[in-house]
Amino acid sequence: MVKAVAELCEKIHDTVARLDDTQPVRIMEVCGTHTMSVARNGLRSLLPEPLRLISGPGCPVCVTDQSYIDSAVALAKRPGVIVATYGDMVRVPGRSGSLADARAAGGEVEVVYSADQAVELARDNPDSRVVFLGVGFETTAPGTALAVKRASEEDVRNFSVFTAHKLIVPAMRALLSSPDIRIDGFLCPGHVSVILGWGAYESLVKEFSAPCVVAGFDPAQILSGIAEILRQLEAGESAACSVYPAVTREGNRRAMELLDEVFVADPAVWRALGKIPDSGLELRDEYARFDAARQLDLPESESYELPGCRCGDVICGRCRPRDCGLFGTQCTPREPVGPCMVSSEGACAAAYKYEAPAAATER
Amino acid sequence: MMRGGYIELAHGGGGQLTSELLDEVILPAVGGQQPDKLTDAAVFETAGKAAFTTDTFVIRPLEFPGGDIGKLAVCGTVNDLAVCGATPRYLSLALVLREGLEIDLLRRVLASAAAEARDAGVTIVTGDTKVVERDACDGMIINTAGIGEILPGARLGFERIRAGDRVLLSGPPGEHAIAVMSRRERLSFSSEVVSDCCSIHRPALELVERLGERVRFMRDPTRGGLAATLTEIAEATGRDVEIDESAIPVNRAAEAAAEMLGLDLLSAANEGKLVAVVAEDAAEQAREMLAGHEISARAAVIGTVGAAGGLVEMITRVGGRRVIQKPYGEQLPRIC
What we know:
CATH superfamily of the largest domain in chain B: PurM-like C-terminal domain
CATH architecture of the largest domain in chain B: Alpha-Beta Complex
Largest interface: A-B, 43 and 24 residues
Strand order of the largest sheet of chain B: 8-10-7-11-9-12-13
Number of domains of chain B: 2
Shape of chain B: globular
CATH superfamily of the largest domain in chain A: HypD, alpha/beta domain 2
Structural class of chain A: alpha/beta
Helix content of chain B: 25-40%
Low-confidence stretches of chain A: 359-363
Radius of gyration of chain B: 21 Å
CATH architecture of the largest domain in chain A: 3-Layer(aba) Sandwich
Structural class of chain B: alpha+beta
Mean pLDDT of chain B: 91
Low-confidence stretches of chain B: 332-336
CATH topology of the largest domain in chain B: Phosphoribosyl-aminoimidazole Synthetase, Chain A, domain 2
Largest sheet of chain A: 5 strands, parallel
Distance between the termini of chain B: 55 Å
Number of helices of chain B: 8
Strand content of chain B: 15-25%
Shape of chain A: globular
Oligomer: heterodimer
Number of strands of chain A: 11
Distance between the termini of chain A: 25 Å
Largest sheet of chain B: 7 strands, mixed
Mean pLDDT of chain A: 93
């Protein structure tokens, strides 16, 4: 692997030198696991200066709108409700605190590893309403779909899903359409693409002529993806493809059918990106009785930005984590202000945890 | 004869039930003394300079792959003494038992504490037992305090660390955290990971005995793991520490489990590992000495102390550079 990495780095350095652009090449990854692998392996230190590797809206917690956090916290404070959630959501602060604060104040918040565990929780607590926070992209959504189907088949009436599931391609389209954001190519997510197939990015390539290359998560995979994007840019090409052998053009048809059976695409509000058409997943009417939004009379919550927090700019590639005035001072992993610092896959958490203060401002 | 299989509040009342618990369960396991020898304090001799430490152990589950709270309570205190360059001699053992605790579980825990103490060459000389109501604690809590005799040649401390000194680690990091976490979360995929819970005084003291003041500093990296110990060294000395990731020993099963859970092995707790900072010219000798003990057979030289800076930097396996930060709070399982 070390030899492969060294060779890829040489190739990347050579290509970037030949590109001879006046502006840096901007490649965006849209996957929390890529964000972490890049940071943990110190890959930015191996890349040439005129190449910017930007962490986009790939962390599920980071793209979740504040209004959703506030509603979830309100739910957790309701007597008789157990909020079941993936761990990363627990500490994201909202207007009236985080889920962790709600739990400290007596609310019931349970961390689960899968949606199915939330159904189990509902079965074990028949006198409570278990609300599962359905957060994440095409990777976690099929798990939620299976859980809803199971709850339906086994008639687990006290289980429901508060869905904020999102689709990655509409967000990539929104970024490419933004006049003030320049992205030269996308390093597409490995896990999501196993489900979606790399064919899902073809429409973007056609519309915006930006290379979309799927890569896996080890350093050699990530660098291969970057090298392929650079190759296309140098040759004046743009194509959707994958350097990750696990990903096919068609993806996992069964998982996609499952999503289609349980969910329907609807407009969703993203942090910083606002409302994007057909970018969210809502439960179909057949499953309305498991839809927390329709069953539990949620309070109206508005969308807003946390004061001073630039998480929105970070996930759009408008600024780097350390450009935010709160980074490392008011906002740290211990006392996070924004979700990008809370989430273990957030760009700010990665920068704080793995990047040396001096080196980080360079790239 | 003890009646019933569970601890009752009356077992802590100081009366007949307390005597029964002591005579039939606790003393046979860890005391070996007759009740009439039970005085209010232990009296013993020490030679020269002594080290004194205390630690309280709370862990869920009480029994985990590779150990239990009893073994942990003895190892923890033995290790704290050893990394100060002290030969562990005497321990106290105080139990806080929850009403309803299975007496058989208590017997197992005490037997394992006693076995570990025998093996480590420490004597449990004093103790205490309290019983609390059901909701007051999780099963049981153990406090141990320990006294050890400082080896004559020991000169250990942050202030003795110099530029060029080498950092050694006795084995793969994070095994205890992964073993406990996987039992707690009932994760079958990582069931093969066993806690590293053990007493490390033999390899630690051999370093001091044979290398003398060329051993600068030792620490057992428990909570906060290797990352906490390294950042503490950097902060306390104001020097950079450079770590070579490819030199850090790896437990593949623990690594796979950590990957799935989104946990960082470098920040994960150990209960039987040693970090030692030694002079450059003693590094290879120190590694060989550690490797001669089964519990530190995979010891490695993992890094170098630099000049001023105060940052821990790591050269990653693929040659990239990144920092190691002081861990913060609990690590949460990630989403995908």
